Amino acid sequence: MSVIFQPVDWATLAIVSAALFGTVSIVDKFIIERQVQDVRTFILIIGIQAWILGLIILLNQPIETGTSFGSVMLAIAAGLTESGGLILMFYALRTDEVSRAVSVTQTFPIFVAILAVLFLNETLGTLEWMAIVVTVLGAVILSTRRTSEGNLLLTRSFLLLILASVAMALSRILAKEALTELSSWNMLGIFLISLTPGFLVVCCRRTTIREAYQIVKRPITFSFFIGDSAIAIGALWVQFAAFAAGPVSLVSALVATRPFFIFMYTILLSQFMPRFLSEPLNPRILVVKFLAIAMIVGGSSRILMN
What we know:
Layout: H1 2-34, H2 39-60, H3 69-93, H4 98-105, H5 108-119, H6 126-143, H7 158-178, H8 184-203, H9 206-216, H10 219-245, H11 248-255, H12 258-272, H13 283-305
């Protein structure tokens, strides 16, 4: 019986993780647009919170006796690699739009699949490869916004964003290997602590520290950061649980459906809380996005059938 339900378990976890990450993206956007003057202040506060929460997790869930040093190093490497990918994306954002940056980095499941086949001995059939590509393309289309010049992806920062996507893929491969010995809680604690150095390198400036200090003194504003971090930690834990239970290539493809949930949340918020987000939803945009959703649903359905 467990053999029958195991695929549903990892797939459900991956979709729940995508839904939670979609919520994180909505809250991130609200904080960056309404609560901070510099995006680096946001990253600095989130990074410090990640370090504190990672330490608390490891104090409450110590690494089990007998866990190899290699697994711990793999978990640290996963966090550092993810941090490096985020730093590359941050530098790309200096010359590129957020929507286009996100669309390029959403290609990471393709690199995860390639690395998983090469190094983890995962096997994917033609239909699985097609499902991953269709799902990722749908996520890319859903994340992309055309500029006034008509450009979509090929910008000067395109190479940086592709490297960021590869780094994120490598991070997930390392996490999958670490999870062969580490629990999801141990993996989460080590991962959060390992993320922080990269955030501090990019964002630790006098102006950002000053603004961060002012935000901490405003309880209502700071509560958004706390809530954002809490949801993000839940999303990460569920993602790691999915990695531990299923093939990292297919899990990553389902986690990459985050833009689908962002779009659905945006529609709901535009109806019930129109002042919360400022997102254009004209008929042309809706047609393109519904096409992208059809691709995501179709690709995800094929993965779920696996």
